[in-house]
Amino acid sequence: MDDIIVKSSSHSYAITIGENVRFLVDNYVTKKYSSILVVSDKTVADLYANDIMNSLKGENTFLSIVPVGEQSKDIRLFYQLHTEAINHGLDRQSLIIALGGGVIGDLAGFVASTYMRGIDYIQLPTTILAHDSSVGGKVAINHELGKNLIGSFYPPKAVIYDTQTLQTLSEKEVRSGYAELIKEALIADGAFLNSLLETDLFSLSTKELEEHLRTGIKIKATIVEEDEKEAGNRKYLNLGHTLGHALETELGYGTITHGEAVAIGLLFSIHVSELMYATKLPYNPLLKWFKKNHYPLDLRNIDEKSLLNIMKSDKKIMNKMIQMVLLKDTGQPTIQELDDEDLHSYLKSFITKLSSE
Amino acid sequence: MDDIIVKSSSHSYAITIGENVRFLVDNYVTKKYSSILVVSDKTVADLYANDIMNSLKGENTFLSIVPVGEQSKDIRLFYQLHTEAINHGLDRQSLIIALGGGVIGDLAGFVASTYMRGIDYIQLPTTILAHDSSVGGKVAINHELGKNLIGSFYPPKAVIYDTQTLQTLSEKEVRSGYAELIKEALIADGAFLNSLLETDLFSLSTKELEEHLRTGIKIKATIVEEDEKEAGNRKYLNLGHTLGHALETELGYGTITHGEAVAIGLLFSIHVSELMYATKLPYNPLLKWFKKNHYPLDLRNIDEKSLLNIMKSDKKIMNKMIQMVLLKDTGQPTIQELDDEDLHSYLKSFITKLSSE
């Protein structure tokens, strides 16, 4: 099928989606690079690094492997990858390839954006979740005081998405990725939402998955083309993320996946939207679908105060008011500033509601 | 006098040069920022931080002070400034002001370029040398394996240059700054070069200095407007820096200033150019002027082999050949690739020549 083309302020890049495209990576590296550094994590490298290295088959091709998990998005590994790039002799005409999920894409992309003031990089996402982060050029590492606080807007030169690599994902990871697809549908496409809500994640066909990824990526691409630097509409993509990020931080990365936290965040956004705009949104169908697909939704033991504090330190805060993405309707996102008191009261009623269902 | 306007790919910004403009900083901060972090070093902060803070007089204005010297351009201070920015509550609508020389501009600019994926920053250079680094948006920190290896292209929102702050510079710092002015003259403007060679650095008037800065900055601005990301002509600005950087690394930062090292590098570039293009360049007038103004030029105890190795690890290396900026004539720079052997032989003959003069 056709590639999806994304126009960024500096260049256009293609997103290629297909089965087994990882064996053809060399075909998508159209420019002549002096050397290539593939960055991956242990799990993904064991499965796919050989396929990529064999496809590239150049003499100046190197592999850097970082530990699995969110804790790799930190300043020490960022610096270490710079060290490895220097030691391998990467210069300004070199390429970095990020082979893995969102953590690898964010980390390797941020290294590429700062290595000798920026070299090219290509995303090879290997999770469903990374359909979201691999497109649009947001790259970052975490600061100990908050997620994604150190980073750049730095679009990749290409995204190569091998759907076969998604076959090895755990159920948790499938759920995690689908939460971001649900988010994109809520923001932009009611028909897509209905189609997702008819999907059973435990019997997903490759064809269905590819179609969902393609639709989700198109929604994302349209938004980032309009607002690359997140001055306006791109903020809509943070739907569900105010509470989502806070839950990840509060519970600890690894306890709950990013998408699972976002799923709860989406329900919270809908809850607030319904109350604030006195409107009817698909809270119940979504809750039902999350439950059917075993999303963890239990917030009974959560520390509300602590969640609130984390939300207040989130970087989307403007002039000390919390900005939340809400929905006036499916496909009609909006930004709303909330003060602490309102946010607290919405969070209280949401936890009560969710716990009673 | 009129501001100099620089067009970058993302925005245009003004360079204001004048006596006492630091007291008017607030007038040049035209946008409403939610908070402002002024970054400076101990020496500069003691002299001028109060003037800036008083001009800004906002409630959300903070000051971060880092140690004096090149060693502050490192990953630890980079991270520490992020921590301070977070703790002060800086958000995406905040501003960083770099108050100091090139080290502060590079460090604070790089923090701004990566804080929450990039916030605005303004340069307030307080050295002559920083007329070069404050314009054009190259920001970076050093890696232990090389200078400026981690950074971004990230233009400031404004440059405010108070010539009064240059009155307190030491002779060494005046020499350092003038070497970059000589470089700009060699690249682009023979008449400017002649005027510089008539200047006595020990009896410099504010008027002369301001005129030199203005001419140097205009040369720099013209070049970076044509080639912001250093894909072509901007490389000419590295004239004298292949050997210059290597000398700084070999001798240790602090032993020789950046500009003093560049001065030797300029002589080396001219030496190579004269031999390679069988042309006559102003080697002797320049040498005479450097001597008259007490530039350190003694290379008799230098380790050639070590210098060569450092030059080979410089980031301007393309495909393992060293790229040097040379001159076909004053105002006619060119890029030449050199192999190790040629470079070694040129370096040998240069050191012999310089030591015999």
Q: Can you characterise this structure?
A:
- The structure is a homodimer of 357-residue chains.
- Chain A has 357 residues and is of the alpha/beta class.
- Chain A has two domains: 4-168, 3-Layer(aba) Sandwich (Rossmann fold); 174-355, Dehydroquinate synthase-like - alpha domain (Dehydroquinate synthase-like, alpha domain, Up-down Bundle), CATH 1.20.1090.
- Chain A is 45% helix and 19% strand.
- Chain A has 13 helices and eleven strands.
- In chain A, the strands form three sheets. Chain A has a seven-stranded mixed β-sheet with strand order 1-2-9-6-5-3-4, with helices on both faces. A two-stranded antiparallel ribbon of chain A has the order 7-8. Chain A has a two-stranded antiparallel sheet with strand order 10-11.
- Chain A is globular.
- The N and C termini of chain A lie far apart (42 Å).
- The mean pLDDT of chain A is 94.
- Chains A and B meet through helix 3, strand 7 and strand 8 of A and helix 3, strand 7 and strand 8 of B.
